[in-house]
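Budget justification aside, the reviewers requested a transparent look at the raw inputs and outputs of the sequence design task funded under Objective 1. We therefore reproduce one unedited record. The lines immediately below are the structure tokens for a 714-residue chain.
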């Protein structure tokens, strides 16, 4: 058996374990001893376990209590459905298949649902097993009510957890840092290394992998989509500010100073909005300042002489910061104020702003209805495993057969390797627990008072040590818990432990078989496929954007708001979302190799996000005059070079991408129009950033990451 978890880990989980144990006891003891209702006692015991142990509810006590309250009606409906479908084994198995598919697939649209899915599944599992007794439905619902009420009160009153900042508040904190850094740049042209590192570190902390499950804005609705976009834009904003502060000093520029003032004010105002405060100015404020900046930049140099190449680069990088700040501000408005128009901004970037909620859910569901989606794979794998377990348990008439399904539910992993590791540990833990429980039952006999006295301490130990000790400790200690509980409901012998061991091994075998047959590699294979599809989908976006900037493909459209890249944006956005979902699961799976080996998947996702953002914000030439032939050739060649590198990187395994774009500085002077020069530098900053991302993503630039002074594209 694995070593005992550290005391620090156990004590960290003890408060929650005490809440769940007392909630289970509060319903179990009155039902078993005062009411003499074993069915009520069973459901009152397992309801807190379902939503307090199997379901990892995030947030403060008030937040968890709200989750239990919201889940209670659905749990009651599933208990009623399971009671009705227990009439035959096949009906119960088909019901198990459909219920699991609906719950697991639906969790992709609602993060709160994802946290309670295991508890809801257990409610159906308990009710769908023999005996078929529809007359006991009122008692089952009463036990569910007792257990849910006790758990809800425990979360509110016992050992209240400190409130953790929401994702919106974390984004607000990041924007406060951005505002302070922008004001620092107003006083100095650069930032020190410590400030740059802090900006990038704060941005990384906004990644969903750093947020607790259930608190990530991953839902399909407008609010969650807007919060996710605000977080992504805030991360990009911090990275761009760090890059801006690391650029070589440039001559004083009044227009840039004015825009920095606007960015700082917008960051502070957006942070206030995300914390629930009143807005002083909207996104239109910075949009207007950015438009004035573009007009002044296109109007020519300030004072005598042309602007230097260093100043042009600094202005272009500053524009990327402003674009990210406008994106954050607009997304914050959508998240806090709901439905609103986004005039003046790229329609494709905020396509969900005026879309009805039902259609947003439909878009999410339809996008994942493919065997290439890890959400679809997990839903099918789990549903087939539980349905097969219900069919086997019913066909073999296993005693306490719901333990078979409980084993599948708790031990199945997204990879065959992970499932085998969990099953192997769980089998050892169950064997040890069964031996100890059997010896205990033989020793205690029919002394019900002994079982009653030990149930609560046993639950506290199991629910404290099990979650941090791994499958062996969880299964072994839970065997002792169910033994002491069942001994108070009906007379038991050591054969109960034999039945539990057989059931757990049966469920483990079914879970392992499903893990081997249904997408055994988990997200690893899909990570490669989805990243390859993303890289292929972004290649035409890069080419179209580069061509649009120099006016080569700025063809008129029936819709004046439609951009030249509109046709290639939607497929690339869909591929980015699929790759992000695969990466989120990939990070939860045990590593089979060092993080230093193979592609850098996060760098690929950063590349995809940067491609889309540049396509949204880099303006088409729209009549900017005097692009010299050498400038056009540079833009076409550079865009095709980055697109070709993306296609090469899509090969599996990807080759190391090492290439260098031709320098623009000798070419930019040939452009006689200030607007043309500025657009060329904007394009160069973006393409250099994409090239750096591709180099890092394919491992060609290791060890280390992108240099701090590399241009941060849009």
């Amino acid at each position: 058996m694995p070593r005992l978890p550290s005391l620090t880990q156990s004590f960290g989980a003890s408060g929650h374990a005490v809440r769940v144990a007392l909630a289970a006891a509060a319903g179990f003891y009155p039902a078993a001893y005062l009411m003499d209702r074993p069915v009520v006692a069973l459901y009152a015991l397992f309801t807190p376990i379902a939503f307090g142990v199997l379901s990892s509810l995030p947030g403060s006590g008030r937040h968890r209590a709200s989750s239990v309250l919201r889940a209670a009606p659905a749990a009651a409906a599933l208990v009623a459905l399971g009671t009705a479908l227990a009439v035959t084994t096949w009906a119960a198995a088909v019901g198990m298949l459909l219920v699991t598919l609906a719950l697991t697939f639906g969790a992709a649209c609602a993060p709160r649902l994802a946290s309670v899915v295991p508890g809801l599944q257990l409610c159906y599992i308990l009710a769908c097993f023999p005996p078929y007794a529809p007359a006991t439905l009122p008692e089952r619902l009463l036990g569910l009510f007792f257990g849910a009420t006790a758990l809800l009160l425990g979360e509110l009153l016992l050992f209240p957890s400190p409130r953790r900042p929401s994702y919106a508040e974390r984004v607000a904190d990041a924007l406060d840092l951005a505002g302070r850094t922008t004001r620092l740049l107003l006083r100095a042209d650069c930032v020190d290394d410590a400030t740059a590192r802090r900006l990038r570190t704060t941005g990384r902390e906004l990644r969903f992998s750093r947020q607790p499950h259930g608190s990530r804005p991953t839902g399909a609705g407008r609010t969650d989509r807007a919060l996710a976009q605000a977080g992504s834009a805030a991360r990009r904003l911090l990275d761009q500010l760090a890059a801006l502060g690391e650029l070589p000093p440039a001559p004083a520029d009044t227009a840039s100073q004015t825009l920095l003032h606007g960015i700082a004010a917008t960051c502070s105002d957006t942070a206030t909005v995300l914390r629930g405060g009143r807005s002083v100015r909207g996104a239109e404020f910075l949009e207007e300042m950015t438009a004035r900046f573009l007009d002044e930049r296109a109007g020519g140099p300030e004072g005598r002489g042309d602007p230097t190449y260093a100043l042009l680069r600094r202005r272009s990088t500053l524009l990327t910061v402003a674009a990210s700040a406008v994106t954050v501000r607009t997304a914050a408005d959508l998240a806090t104020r709901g439905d609103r128009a986004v005039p003046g901004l790229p329609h494709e970037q905020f396509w969900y702003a005026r879309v009805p909620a039902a259609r947003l859910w439909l878009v999410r569901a339809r996008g994942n209805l493919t065997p290439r989606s890890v959400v679809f794979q997990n839903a099918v794998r789990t549903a087939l495993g539980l349905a097969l377990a219900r069919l086997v348990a019913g066909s073999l008439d296993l005693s306490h057969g719901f333990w078979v399904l409980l084993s599948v539910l708790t031990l199945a992993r997204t990879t065959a390797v992970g499932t085998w590791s969990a099953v192997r540990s769980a089998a050892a833990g169950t064997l040890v627990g069964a031996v100890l429980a059997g010896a205990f039952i033989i020793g205690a006999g029919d002394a019900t008072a002994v079982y009653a006295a030990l149930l609560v301490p046993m639950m506290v130990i199991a629910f404290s040590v099990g979650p941090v000790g791994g499958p062996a400790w969880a299964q072994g200690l839970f065997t002792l818990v169910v033994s002491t509980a069942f001994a108070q409901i009906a007379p038991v012998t050591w054969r109960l432990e034999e039945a539990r061991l057989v059931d757990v091994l049966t469920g483990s075998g079914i879970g392992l078989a499903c893990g081997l047959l249904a997408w055994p590699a988990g997200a690893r294979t899909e990570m490669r496929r989805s990243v390859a599809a993303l890289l292929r989908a972004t290649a035409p976006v890069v080419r179209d954007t580069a061509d649009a900037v120099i006016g080569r493909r700025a063809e008129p459209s029936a819709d004046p708001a439609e951009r030249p890249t509109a046709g290639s944006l939607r497929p690339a956005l869909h591929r980015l979302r699929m790759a992000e979902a695969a990466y989120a699961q990939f990070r939860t799976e045990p590593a089979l190799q060092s993080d230093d080996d193979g592609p850098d998947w996060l760098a690929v996702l950063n590349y995809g996000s940067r491609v889309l953002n540049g396509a949204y914000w880099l303006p088409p030439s729209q009549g900017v005059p005097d692009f010299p032939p050498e400038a056009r050739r540079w833009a076409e060649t550079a865009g095709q070079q980055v697109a070709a590198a993306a296609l090469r990187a899509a090969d599996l395994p990807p080759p190391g991408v090492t290439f260098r774009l031709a320098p623009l500085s000798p070419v930019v002077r040939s452009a006689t129009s200030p607007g043309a020069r500025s657009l060329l530098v904007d394009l160069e900053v973006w393409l250099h950033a994409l090239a750096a991302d591709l180099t890092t993503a394919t491992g060609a630039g290791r060890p280390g990451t992108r240099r701090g002074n590399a241009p941060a594209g849009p």
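Residues 1-12, 554-561, 702-712 have pLDDT under 50 and may be disordered. The two ends are 52 Å apart (CA to CA). Computational costs for records of this kind are itemized in the attached budget.
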